[in-house]
Amino acid sequence: MPLQHDRPTVRAMRPDDRPRLLALAGELGEWFDEDARRRAIPIDLAHQQCLVAELGRQIVGFITLHVAEGRLHIGWIAVRRNLHRHGIGRALLAAAEAQARLLGIIELAVYTLGESVDYAPYVPTRQFYLATGFRPSCRKMTDNPGCPEELHLIKQVSPEQPHEMSIAPGIRQATETDLPGVAALCLQWAAEGLTRNYRADTVDELRKRLGECCLVAEVDGQVIGFVIGELRSTAGNEFVEGVLDDAAAYLEVQDLYVAPGHRGRGVGTLLMRHLLQIADNRGISGSLVYSANRDYARTARFYESLGYDMWHIHMTRGGRK
Prior knowledge:
By secondary structure, the chain is an alpha+beta fold. The protein folds into 2 domains: 9-159, Gcn5-related N-acetyltransferase (GNAT) (Aminopeptidase, 3-Layer(aba) Sandwich); 166-304, Aminopeptidase. It has helices at residues 18-26, 34-47, 88-103, 122-131, 162-165, 179-192, 203-207, 267-281, 296-304; strands at residues 9-12, 49-55, 58-68, 71-79, 107-113, 135-141, 149-156, 170-173, 214-219, 222-233, 249-258, 287-289. The strands form 2 sheets. Strands 1-2-3-4-5-7-6 form a 7-stranded mixed β-sheet, sandwiched between helices. α1 (18-26) packs antiparallel against α2 (34-47). It is elongated. Mean pLDDT is 87; it is low at 1-5 and 162-166.
């Protein structure tokens, strides 16, 4: 049993967590029926964002999240049986709220077994959601024998908490587990309209771009920004001819984005410095970045602060979006 002052840490799921998460769900048969344990949860762990709660090095809980109809939905939440009522579930919900704020979403949503079904294990589940600020939005009768009545609940996401803003981000190489979170940031980028003709990459498209030059910034288990680059050969590359062709290769910076609530705190600079260090470790000093950002002057100042010089200007007049 944890001590009273022990607090769980919440982070993004890693690929090697999957067997332990499935084992944890398998121990909670009162809440997750056989179809959930054998089919639904394994599929959702692969396609939804998943956050993991740890005490020390022990995984003690997890939550899955996905965006639908303007809300951040909780797919599954699980806490190790002997650690119920020790703040694990609340820590996972707090992390979900932080993710909603990061995405600019103001409501969390979840559904659970309704009270018309006489089944004791879900009584404390409903009490937990109500105690943490969820309120019923509707009830639906279904033909699902595992959940004949669905109780749908919604929670308004509270304003950003000061302590969340003071945590220094960690920068690391992106993994398969990060892809839903990065894809969500891409959708946020597109929705903001910051960049002309920007189209958000899907998870499948992002998967093809994973590698040493695909980095994420993470705070409290939440991906708050990313940068994607590529080490490219200068040989036969007309675009860099006469500029970077004195070296065999160069770093092309392709995408850089930081969530709105974390801008102005050096996250983009940290991502770029880590990316440039990867190239430097390979003996590559040349780098190219191009941008269609609407605030081009601010973008130029940012890259100039990292040692870039203006090389090419492409302007249009009329006939554009």
